[in-house]
Write a structure and sequence with these properties.
This protein is an alpha+beta fold. It has 4 helices and 6 strands; from the N terminus they run E-E-H-H-H-H-E-E-E-E. The protein starts with 13 loop residues before the first strand and ends in a 25-residue tail after the last strand. The mean pLDDT is 87.
Amino acid sequence: KITEKIDLEGLEEGLYNLQLEVKDNISGYRESRRDFFSLHRGYQSTTRLFPDLTEELKLIRYFLPSSKTTIWASLSDPGKQNFVNQFWSRQDPTPTTERNEFLDEVKQRIDYCNSFFSHYEEGWKTDRGRIYIRHGKPDEIVKQKTGFYTKYATKDYEIWKYRMGRSFTYIFIDLLTSGNYKLIYSENDDQEVTLPDWSSYLDNDFDESLLE
C-alpha cells in the first residue's frame, strides 16, 4: 500500500479534478484513476434533486453529452456527489446568491412532467419529460392523429416547437395508446435521434409544413 500526501496549502475553496497515475518501473504497467475533491470551510451542503445518485446522473445526462459523464462509473460516492455539486453550481446564473434559479426551474419542470406525463414510469423519465426538462414549455404544440396509410393503426401524435432563441422541433407518437409518447423526430438537436423512417409512422402524405 502506497500513501502520498497532497499539499493543499495555498489552494482556494472549490471543487477540483484529481488525476492519479501509478507506474510499475519494472513491467512498465500504468494505471490511472480520476476523481473529484472539494475544499471548504465548515459545513458544505449537498446539492441534489433525488436521494438516489444514479437517478441524479440520469437527470444530469439530459444536459450533458455522454463524453462528459463516462467518468461516473469510476468515481467514489463522495466523488459522485462532488460531480453533482459541480454540475449544478456551474448552471447557476447568479452564483453570488444562495438561490440557484436553474436548479429551482428544473425541479418545477420535473414536478410538471410527473403530473402530466407519468404512466408506466415517472413523467420525468419519459421522452416528453426529457425534452420538457431540457427546454421547458414548448412555444407551440400541434396535436394530430395519424392517417390510414401508416405502419400502425391510428395513433395520436404531438409536434413540439421551440422558436425562442435556437429553433427545435420534435415529434412524439403514442405507439401503444398508453399515453407514453415516444420521440421519433428531432430537428436541430444533436443530443436526440430521428428515426430514419419517421414519416411512415404518420402518413404517406404527411404535411411537412406543420414542422415550420
